[in-house]
Amino acid sequence: MQRYDHLSSTLKAFMLDKPDATREELKSHLKVMAEQFLTDSDAQGYWNMVEPNVDGVMMNLVEDTVSSLKEIAATKHLSTDQHRHIVEALSLLDDVKSKARGDARGLLNRMHGTESSGELTMISNHQNLKSDLPSIASATSISGLAAVYLSEHAVNLSASTLRVAQSNYKTLHEASSGVDMANHSRADLVALRDNLSETRSNSTVNALLAKLSTLLSWAKLNGHINNDYSAKLKFTKGADSKRKAFNPEQVGRLQAEAKGSAVEALVTIAAITGARLGELMQLEVSDVKEIDGITFIDINDDGEGKSLKNKYSRRVVPLVDGALGFDLQSFISGLPAAGPVFQFSKDKAGRDFRYLQERAGADGEGLTFHSLRHSMAGRLKAADVALTTAQAILGHSSNSITYDHYGKGAVAELVKMQDAIAVSLASS
């Protein structure tokens, strides 16, 4: 009975006994609590509702309340807003603990509304972990669903398992381009899968898709979404050969639709280099280089946040002036002084490209941004480009040239690649 009373008091203290409370009302309630903790006032008796407020036991009360909130999250039927409220309440209690150690910054930030809304605190059996999930654009985006899913299941997860799960769902959210899963389609999930495959092996992608399937199955079962189209989404043996390429006419229409937009250069450079979306989006201005009159991009994983699909992906690829109408000088003059070559997110690139596909009538089954890479591979083959040169351009083997390992013949190889690209695209 005492435990039941304690849970009931916690529900009341955090307004979780009011299912109709709005998101703003719940946030305002936590702000009031933050001020009371900061000033050691208890005008509305929050902690008297939890247990008798005896001197010297405040931290014990906080720990008891943390346990109660975790139990409520794991056992009670709550709305999405209530689950998120519990996550934020646990973060508030972390700030209370910090204040007891002499650091009141967290509580002050809450009072002034400057706490980071994108840094949710997820529940663990042993500790609260700062989530790596991105800011939630929608309660039914992958990150929004994952926040609720993990808050419900975290009491059964170790800290390390929870941390891995957070990382996996962050990756899935980014690959989804923020699509609202309440209205998602099969095409959205196919695009997500192909985005993942830009820098990952099929086996790694399949492991992530298994996590997605579990999340969407739970979300549908609990009424968060109406449909789950994740069945049979995984790659099967030989799946790479089934991916489609854009034909030259489709590439031309995509370029025409992209003209004047933020992704104009991105689309054309992908079409003339065969580089993956992930490889292009992580290019820095310092990765655009010139040697002996040949301008090229240095695709590498040097620097924080960069990654490549495999060891052969590290390579240099010439930027051929005039190929498919590419204006090299205009591109160079338009580069920022430093930082990323493309000043927008990978999510935006993916969304904008899908929009271009629709406008250009190039959005058939199996056609994605990655299809530009397959188109380039097909053009190189059709032009009878030597296999070793084609592999060097696409990063398919150890024949790839890297900027770190230039030898006497490296410039000659760069010229070969430049000529191969020019010849293969000459008829377009």
TrEMBL record:
It comes from Serratia proteamaculans. Keywords: DNA integration, DNA recombination, DNA-binding. It holds the Pfam family Phage_integrase. Belongs to the 'phage' integrase family. GO terms for molecular function: DNA binding. Residues 241-419 form the Tyr recombinase domain. This is Site-specific integrase. The keyword DNA-binding applies. GO terms for biological process: DNA integration; DNA recombination. The keyword Aminoacyl-tRNA synthetase does not apply.
